[in-house]
């Protein structure tokens, strides 16, 4: 059984670290709103948002700026929804850090940075139960901001017990339950802006496209494309609306689920081209385009 980390239990009163924690809490108390884009400044921002918001089972090796004793792998979720653990794989020690955790952190970027730093130096068998961000660097100081992620999407959660010969019965039960609820997911392959993800939700499939642009600019561009009749990925698709999460806008298309994810690549490439052209325009919106924008906004929801 993994050992619980003693780190994160809190600083001793009167210590230098206690002073830093107090100073950080004072700064946070003076902040009236949470960070809108916790992964801003990273080339991987859009995929990080997708992995935290709606991708079920996926992993990616992290491009660390300063390598520690352990390499670190990003995962969507760990057993028990904890933030991090360290284990042995093929006689090597590796850290696993999760984006989907319970409870959810107030500042996901800071929490992820702290978990990564913990995972680089902890021993195999350790698990992190509570993230302490008091001494943490920022995420852009931990991850190479210029590098994107190579994400591996899994059909199940069997990687939870990779390298284990006799996993605990409760872990096996958690895997069985998680596998039963997983939805087929794939990232579209191509030269796209942002991160387009296909998800089979059962009755229908969706394309959820995380975009990095400012929300108002994206709304205006979507309105231009809609007014021109281009808000589609082709036959069998329908623009369903958009949602906002972690400061980014995510247009959503309903799709014919009989078609495989990559069969939507050509339509997505065409839409990507039209949207980029619309984003480049600085002309005032026409009355028809403003009506389109209002209609798109009326169907927008916020996840986080």
Secondary structure layout:
Elements: E1 3-4, H1 16-29, H2 45-53, E2 58-61, E3 72-75, E4 84-89, E5 92-98, H3 108-121, E6 126-128, H4 139-142, E7 152-153, H5 169-181, E8 185-187, E9 195-200, E10 205-210, H6 215-227, E11 237-245, E12 248-255, H7 265-280, H8 287-298, E13 300-302
Parallel strand pairs: 1-6, 3-5, 11-13
Antiparallel strand pairs: 2-3, 2-7, 4-5, 4-6, 8-9, 9-10, 10-12, 11-12
Helix pairs in contact: 6-7, 6-8
Would you kindly provide a written description of the structure presented here, covering whatever features stand out?
The protein has helices at residues 16-29, 45-53, 108-121, 139-142, 169-181, 215-227, 265-280, 287-298; strands at 3-4, 58-61, 72-75, 84-89, 92-98, 126-128, 152-153, 185-187, 195-200, 205-210, 237-245, 248-255, 300-302. α6 packs across α7 and α6 (215-227) packs across α8. A seven-stranded mixed sheet has the order 1-6-4-5-3-2-7, covered by helices on one side. It has a six-stranded mixed sheet with strand order 8-9-10-12-11-13. The radius of gyration is 21 Å and the shape is globular. With 304 residues, the chain is an alpha+beta fold. A hairpin with a 4-residue loop joins β9 and β10 (205-210).
How would you briefly describe this protein structure?
By secondary structure, the protein is an alpha+beta fold. The protein contains 8 helices and 13 strands.
Q: Helix content range of the residues, please?
A: 25-40%
Tell me how many strands there are.
13
Shape: globular
Spatial strand sequence of the major β-sheet: 1-6-4-5-3-2-7
Unreliable spans are 1-10
The total count of helices amounts to 8
Q: Termini distance?
A: 34 Å
- Mean pLDDT score: 89
Share in β-strands? 15-25%
**Secondary-structure element series:** EHHEEEEHEHEHEEEHEEHHE
Major sheet summary line: 7 strands, mixed
Radius of gyration over all CA atoms, rounded: 21 Å
The assigned structural class equals alpha+beta
